[in-house]
Design brief:
The protein has helices at 2-48, 53-64. The chain has 79 residues and is mostly helical. It has one domain. The longest helix is centred in the N-terminal third of the chain and has 47 residues, at 2-48. The relative contact order is 0.10.
């Protein structure tokens, strides 16, 4: 009985630790998505200001450094 109780306790602790870790990762993903969205909003405003695609893409790449994979900050569309 004691072994069963110990196993159950360890399983519950592991589950709780995983849930906390998963929650932390989820919060980090949320923050990363918001940062990417802000970078893309900045790129849209840059284009609206008439700065040109080359300048705006360079600004987007700078704003997204370390956030997403690729030079399009996790988003690519057709031109």
């Amino acid at each position: 009985m004691k072994k069963h109780l110990l196993s159950l306790t360890l399983a519950l602790l592991a589950t709780a630790a995983f849930a906390q870790h998963a929650d932390k990762e989820t919060q980090e993903d949320i923050a990363r998505h918001r940062a990417m969205a802000a970078a893309h909003e900045g790129a849209a405003k840059c284009l609206e200001a008439g700065k040109g695609e080359k300048v705006c893409m360079a600004e987007l790449q700078t704003a997204c450094k370390g956030l997403a994979i690729g030079k399009y900050c996790g988003m690519r569309h057709v031109h």
